[in-house]
Amino acid sequence: MSLNNLKLLEKFREVNNLEIIESQSEVKRLSKDFYNYSPILTKKLDGCIADIVVRPSDHIAVKKVVEICWKFSIPLTLRGAGTGNYGQAVPLFKGVVMQMSRFNKIENFDPDTGFVKVQSGCIMGVLNKKLERYGRELRLLPSTWKTATIGGFIAGGSGGIGSIRWGFLRDPGNLIGLEAVTINEKPELLKLDAEESEPLNHAYGTNGIITSLLLATDIKRRWYAVVIDCIEFEKTIDILKILTSAAINLKLGAILEDEIVDQMPTWFKSKTRSHKILIQTTLGGINTIELICKKFKVESSLLGEEEKLVNGISEVVWNHTTLHMRSRDKNWTYLQMLLPLNNELELINFLRKKWGKKVLWHIEAVSQQGSPRLAALPVLKWNGVEELNEIMDDCKKLGAFIFNPHVLTVEGGGLGVVDADQVKAKVKFDPKGLLNPGKLEGWAIKEQFNI
Ligand SMILES: Cc1cc2nc3c(=O)[nH]c(=O)nc-3n(C[C@H](O)[C@H](O)[C@H](O)COP(=O)(O)OP(=O)(O)OC[C@H]3O[C@@H](n4cnc5c(N)ncnc54)[C@H](O)[C@@H]3O)c2cc1C
Q1: Which residues line ligand 1 (CB under 6 A)?
Q2: In what order do the strands lie in the sheet with 250-256?
Q3: pLDDT in tens, 213-232
Q4: Is 82 exposed, middle or buried, given 0-12, 13-18 or 19+ CB atoms closer than 10 A?
């Protein structure tokens, strides 16, 4: 049921501690995220706008919203800061968008374990700053950490700065537990441990309203930004791989090919045209990096402590690389993939030969199931769906694993298969299927899982 009914609106207005946003321009803005990085998603999602947006300040207000949505079968889509790239927070079937930004408190920090309990709407930049007082920092940050919420990152993100050491959000040990509200006639606040939380981790808010999270943190370190200049592209891969297996602390390791570097903001460009390796390490790692660079006959420059730089290298990595490319030319889009282990160059060289400057290389070092691996977020010049599919097919044939950023569903953007546990959690916690409908493919075939 859509909500263009005044009596229904009145019911939301009666709820205490609930801000209601009805202004058409605001509702439109808060129904969108950064899906416009994909021309395919832009076409599908531009017309999807909620009826209203609500912002609850406490659990009672959340439950009241759920009760109204349940009673009148109104779709309910959750939103953090709306920085997702796949239309995760876009309401496909109108209804209510509930923004969790007022759930922003840090509830507890345990000095023995380093676990922090934080409400889902807390901005990651704010959380990270507050963790400093305990000598801790977040293990993983998307490059949008200044504006994105921790709940949105867990429900819609995957990894980022820190993935070189800590892998991805769904790796065991990163998310320790969570609290979530169910979508029933009588909504409940669930307190889930690490195992029970797994189905809600990266489920696009389709199977529970996360109100708080228990996360592992790392010791706060001073990270230093180092840039290595390479004239030969092939060397960048060898150097990055050696660095990721060296005995030094690393927070970030990325490669930008020269054509990309040319289109980054002016503060980042250097006088010499070269491919660049970007590293964040501790002070103790700098000598080792210099030594490795000497062996490869390349130059490294220490830019300084990342946090103290006016523009740090965190601003040009992960999907911020794509952001800067798109600020020059909106025809750039991108792909995400794990490159084939030990065969990265075969794939890259094949694509460079076949596609030339239509595909430019941006590589990120990650840890995959505990082992160093290279991921890539190449930027592509948009030239239609057929060409995109051909590029993806080329990558797959040469052993890459694609995480397609041009699809709407949890499964499509992930491993491509239905996760039965995510579907089971939805059947249990959202039996009417009201949460973010259309985003969990497994819901349509739930009968197959003997639930
Ligand atoms: C320039 C750019 C760079 C980016 N870099 C990265 C990166 O490095 N790594 C990465 O993983 N992502 C990246 N992203 C994607 C995105 O910024 C992150 O995933 C971010 O953490 C999302 O947080 P958010 O608060 O904006 O969530 P939103 O976009 O608001 O929501 C994301 C999903 O979570 C759901 N959700 C939100 N809150 C809740 C809740 N309380 N309970 C249940 N579900 C909820 C929403 O329904 C939606 O499905 C990038 C995006 C851009 C535009």
Answers
A1: 33-34, 77-85, 88-89, 100, 120, 142-144, 148-149, 151-153, 155-160, 204-205, 209-210, 318-320, 323, 436
A2: 299-305, 224-230, 275-281, 250-256, 362-368, 371-376, 337-338, 401-402
A3: 999 999 999 999 999 999 99
A4: buried
Partners of 228 in the β-ladder: 277, 300
Tokens 């200044």 map to which residue?
146
Percent pLDDT > 70 in the chain is 99
Reported as a single tens digit per residue, the pLDDT across 394-437 is 999 999 999 999 999 999 998 889 999 999 999 999 999 999 99
Helices 6-13, 59-72: inter-axial angle, 10-degree rounding: 160
pTM to 2 decimal places: 0.97
Helix (H, G, I), strand (E, B) or coil at 176: strand
The DSSP secondary structure of 105-133, one letter per residue, reads: -EEEEETTTTEEEEETT-BHHHHHHHHGG
Nearest Cα residue to 333 out of 312, 365, 353, 362 = 362
Q: Which tokens is 78 given?
A: 């959750």
DSSP secondary structure of 19-41: EEE--HHHHHHTT--SGGGSHHH
Rounded to whole angstroms, the Cα distance separating 365 from 162 reads 10
Phi first, then psi: give them for residue 56, nearest 5 degrees.
-80, 150
What number does the ligand 1 atom closest to the CA of 88 have? 49
Ligand 1: residue whose CA is nearest its atom 31: 152
In this predicted structure, the answer to whether residue 1 has a pLDDT above a threshold of 50 is no
Cα 149 from chain centroid?
A: 10
